[in-house]
Amino acid sequence: MNILITGIHGFVGTNLVHALEDHHTIYGLDIVVPHKEGVVKTYTWAELDTVPLVDVVIHLAGKAHDTKNQTNAQVYFDINTGLTQKIYDWFLSSEAKKFIFFSSVKAAADKVVEEILTEEIVPSPKGPYGESKIKAENYILSRPPTPKGEEEKKLKMTYILRPCMIHGPGNKGNLNLLYKVVKKGIPYPLGAFENRRSFCSIDNLSFVISGVIEKEVASGIYNVGDDESLSTNELITLMAATMGKSASIWKWNKALVQLAAKVGTVLHLPLNTERLQKLTENYVVSNAKIKQALGVDKMPVSAKEGLLKTLRSL
Predict the structure, then answer these.
(1) Are 290 and 226 in contact (CB under 8 A)?
(2) For the chain, which residues make up each domain, given as ranges?
(3) Strands 98-102 and 56-59
(4) Cα separations (Å) of 186 from 41, 183, 189?
(5) What 3-state DSSP class applies to 17?
(6) Of the four listed, 150, 156, 194, 204, which is most buried by Cβ atoms within 10 Å?
(7) pLDDT: is 274 or 101 the higher one?
């Protein structure tokens, strides 16, 4: 198949190219076009109408969540919503049969109130990142494909994927920050916060994308994540193990830690209120719907296997 990937030069896009290029022809759409031999043929957004005929559109391009809250809110809507509207309109008028939009679990909920997050939740995002993603989702849902006949209708499908924290070799983000803390031998002071959260290895994500492309999967919204959830304390222990160290976990008083995080927010320190929430909240995501759609009982890589692969690369 011919596949167009927007945001192709980002972390996820680069890994998807490696996962798909042996079986499909890949084209890219991005802000810049690299002038290197062997790189996937890439077009700028201004050249969208010159892109060759494709069968599948994978829309990755977006503005990532800024945990320092230094990004103007409108930027999220210009990129996460605006670019989605542009590429989805292009898809509707094209010959492509499948449109895969990378949204986020944050489009559904900033916090998981119940034990586990499923696709049935009524979305209630908080902040411009999640709000811009759900606005993009709603645009897609408000404009279903309207082909001429029922047989053609079955062939033009749209998928909204809501992955949780994606990680893998080359990953940059909170995992990398936490890894540096452990590597320096700094004790982890948040051991008193008992939590569990879901992760999404790039291998499992690539597996899902391949399945959606190659199998007859119904249009819809799908959470994407690993099968198991882990606590931050377990994650710290895994990090230490990859370094041949024993985990140094302190259980500081929760109230004092929360106060320190508030001060960090004001002074723009590494530990701020938002980062504390991310490190200590329960955020468990169900991947049952996508596994049922793909006809599998479990993801190919366990949560611990995927995290170990990422941590060793760091």
Answers:
(1) no
(2) 2-163
(3) parallel
(4) 45, 8, 9
(5) helix
(6) 204
(7) 101
Instruction: For domain 2-163, give its CATH number from 3.40.640.10, 3.60.120.10, 3.40.50.720, 2.40.50.200.
Output: 3.40.50.720
Burial class for 15, CB neighbours closer than 10 Å (0-12, 13-18, 19+):
buried
Please check whether residue 43 is in contact with residue 55, taking contact to mean a CB–CB distance below 8 angstroms. no
Task: Please state, in angstroms and as integers, the Cα–Cα distance from residue 309 to each residue in 119, 236, 298, 306, following that order.
Answer: 28, 15, 18, 5
Residue 5 sits at φ, ψ, to 5 deg, of: -115, 120
pLDDT in tens, 178-204: 888 899 999 988 899 988 999 999 999
Question: How confident is residue 64, by pLDDT bands cut at 50, 70 and 90?
Answer: confident
Q: Please, what's the b/e burial string for 132-144 (b: 16 or more CB within 10 A of its CB; e: otherwise)?
A: bbbbbbebbeeee
- Model pLDDT, residue 67: 57
Task: Answer yes or no: pTM beyond 0.85.
Answer: yes
CA pair distance 63, 78, nearest whole angstrom: 9
